[in-house]
Write a structure and sequence with these properties.
By secondary structure, this protein is an alpha+beta fold. It has two domains: 95 residues, no CATH class; 106 residues. Helix content is 36%, strand content 14%. The chain has seven helices and eight strands, in the order H-H-E-E-H-H-E-E-H-E-E-H-E-E-H. Strands 3-4-5-6-8-7 form a six-stranded mixed beta sheet, sandwiched between helices. Strands 1-2 form a two-stranded antiparallel ribbon. A hairpin with a 4-residue loop joins strand 1 and strand 2.
C-alpha cells in the first residue's frame, strides 16, 4: 500500500461480518476494520442511506477534501442501489461495481489482485472529480453571448473544454481556450448549428492557425491533446466570441 504514513500497511481480507482473528473490531489501533465486524467504519448497524463505510472513513480521515467527498457520495449511492438516471430511474449503463465485478471474474479468489488493479482506477476517478471542481469554479467566470442559434457560452480554463456545463446552463454553443492555447467551438449535437461560416471567417481572420472543422459541422477545433496544432491561434477568447457573434 502507498498512503503516506500508512505506506507499509498490509491489506487483509476476512469473511463478511467477521474480524481479523475474531478479535474486537477496534481493539487494536494498528488494525483498521472497514465495513465489517460492527466497528467504527462498519455502516451495517445503521439504516441511514447517506452512510457507507467509505463515507465513515472520509469523515474521520479527510472531511475537507471536496473531490473525495464527491467520489464517496457516488460510492454511497451505489452501495444503496441509488445510482440511476432519468424519470424512469433507469440504471446507469456502467458503474464502478461493474468494473470491480469484472476484475473479480478475472481474478477469482484473489482479492489482493482486484484491490491492486482498482487503485489506479480510483486515482483516475479522484482526479476527474478534482478537475470537475476546478472547471466549475472557472465556469463562474464564463462569458455569455447571443448567437443566431441561441445562447453561447465561452470559457477560459486551465483544464480545457467542458461543454456539459455549458449545455446544462442552456447554451446551444460553447467556445473555450485552455492554458496551452488550444481553442474550440462545440455545438449541441441535436441543434441546427452549422459552424461552416465561422470556419470560413477564421480561415481569413486567423489564417495561420490550424483550425479543423468536423464533418458534422458542429465542432471546430484548433488543437487538442491528441492532435496538437503546428500553429496555434493568436486570437483571445474574447476575439473568438466576436467572430462567432458577427458571423
Amino acid at each position: 500500500m502507498r498512503f503516506g504514513k500508512a505506506a507499509e500497511a498490509e491489506l487483509a481480507f476476512v469473511p463478511a461480518g467477521r474480524t481479523l482473528n475474531d478479535r474486537a473490531p477496534d481493539e487494536d489501533p494498528t488494525i483498521i476494520h472497514v465495513d465489517t465486524g460492527n466497528g467504527r467504519f462498519d455502516h451495517h448497524h445503521s439504516a441511514d442511506t447517506s452512510l457507507s463505510a467509505a463515507e465513515l472513513v472520509r469523515r474521520s480521515i479527510v472531511p475537507g477534501d471536496a473531490a473525495l467527498q464527491r467520489l464517496v457520495e457516488q460510492v454511497t449511492r451505489n452501495d444503496h442501489a441509488e445510482l440511476s438516471v432519468g424519470p424512469l430511474r433507469q440504471p446507469i449503463f456502467f458503474n464502478i461495481n461493474d468494473l470491480i465485478a469484472g476484475y473479480n471474474a478475472l481474478y477469482p479468489n484473489r482479492p489482493h489482485h482486484v484491490a491492486q488493479a482498482m487503485l489506479p482506477n480510483l486515482d483516475a476517478w479522484y482526479e476527474h472529480e478534482a478537475r470537475q471542481i476546478r472547471m466549475e469554479r472557472a465556469f463562474a467566470r464564463r462569458l455569455e453571448f447571443r448567437t443566431r442559434w441561441g445562447l453561447g457560452i465561452a470559457l477560459q480554463s486551465d483544464d480545457g473544454a467542458s461543454s456539459r456545463l455549458a449545455y446544462q446552463h442552456g447554451a446551444v454553443l460553447y467556445a473555450y481556450r485552455d492554458r496551452r492555447g488550444y481553442m474550440g467551438i462545440a455545438a449541441q449535437h441535436r441543434s441546427e448549428v452549422d459552424l461552416s461560416p465561422i470556419y470560413v471567417d477564421l480561415q481569413r481572420i486567423d489564417s495561420e492557425a490550424d483550425w479543423y472543422l468536423h464533418p458534422s459541422h458542429r465542432l471546430l477545433l484548433c488543437g487538442t491533446p491528441k492532435a496538437p496544432p503546428r500553429h496555434r491561434s493568436h486570437l483571445s477568447l474574447e476575439q473568438l466570441v466576436e467572430v462567432i457573434r458577427n458571423t
